Amino acid sequence: MSQIILISILGMIGLLIVLFFVFVPVGLWVSSMAANVKISIFTMVGMRLRRVRPARIVLPLIKARKAGLDLGVNQLEAHYLAGGNVDNVVNALIASERAGIELKFEKAAAIDLAGRNVLEAVKMSVNPKVIETPNVSAVAKDGIELLVKARVTVRADLERLVGGAGEATVLARIGEGIVTTVGSALSHKEVLENPDDISKRVLSKGLDSGTAFEILSIDIADIDVGRNIGAQLQSLQAEADKNIAQAKAEERRAMAVAKEQEMRAYVVEAEAEVPKAMAYALREGKLGVMDYYELQNLKADTDMRETIGGGASGKSIES
């Protein structure tokens, strides 16, 4: 019985030792002491209680101290709790210090929390990046379309990285500058002869204002001649003018037909009044019976002549 109790006690002691070494990062504390970075073991236990992984703080701190950076545990822990990438920030600070670029921890932390890769920004500040624009369509004053492709060399500006516009804005401004420059040229041949004019004019506009980059150079990679936009527009305008003229002519024809029908209606209406007028004249004695018969004979004679004339013309046509 005593042996069972002894084994239970030893098991409990072993379990407590295992839990102690799991909860208390003794190995990490030994590593920090060996690196001459003094962090008390109680501080690491406090990190555990604050749900902070001690390795995410201690290892970057050791790296920073070895690189000669004066960083504290509280700074790194606060940045970790804010959701930042402590290791990435420390690497960026070391890279900037080696490159002679002034970058404070607060600025690097702000860049990291803003969602930008601060280490990539430092690398881009040391080694500029080349951005290639897609084909930009621009039309000169002579109506010829040019397809221009440019390569833009940019360098990250760490001071404007927080709140500054990204690559999409730079590309949009470059495209706008190319369209404006080509559009102001009298002929597309001028642009083909001096493509560097595009680079000079676009670069002089200060297109990197308000962005997170500094434009170092703009180089025209390729210029292709596209469509004759001026001729196409003139053709479309001529077609539109023709359609308008046809519509106006059709409108005038319809008005003429309507006017003709209106006049025919007036004639029919006037003819309808003739019998009434004759009846009135007979009643009033202004027209005699003989006069009426003479009018009827004259009408019959006229109808006969028209019939004969129509028949003769028909025979002549047949012959």
Automatic annotation (TrEMBL):
Its quaternary organisation is: Homooligomerizes.
Entry protein name: Flotillin-like protein FloA
Does the record's keyword annotation contain Lipid biosynthesis? no
Q: Where is the signal peptide?
A: none
A Pfam match is FloA
Organism domain of life: Bacteria
- Topological relation to the membrane, as annotated: Single-pass membrane protein
- Known HAMAP family for this protein? FloA
Record keywords, A-Z: Cell membrane, Membrane, Transmembrane, Transmembrane helix
User: Do the record's keywords include Disulfide bond?
Assistant: no
Source organism: Candidatus Limivivens merdigallinarum
So where does this one cross the membrane? 5-23
Q: Where in the cell is it found?
A: Cell membrane; Membrane raft
**Function text:** Found in functional membrane microdomains (FMM) that may be equivalent to eukaryotic membrane rafts FMMs are highly dynamic and increase in number as cells age. Flotillins are thought to be important factors in membrane fluidity.
GO cellular component, alphabetical, reads: membrane raft; plasma membrane
Please give the family membership noted in the entry: Belongs to the flotillin-like FloA family.
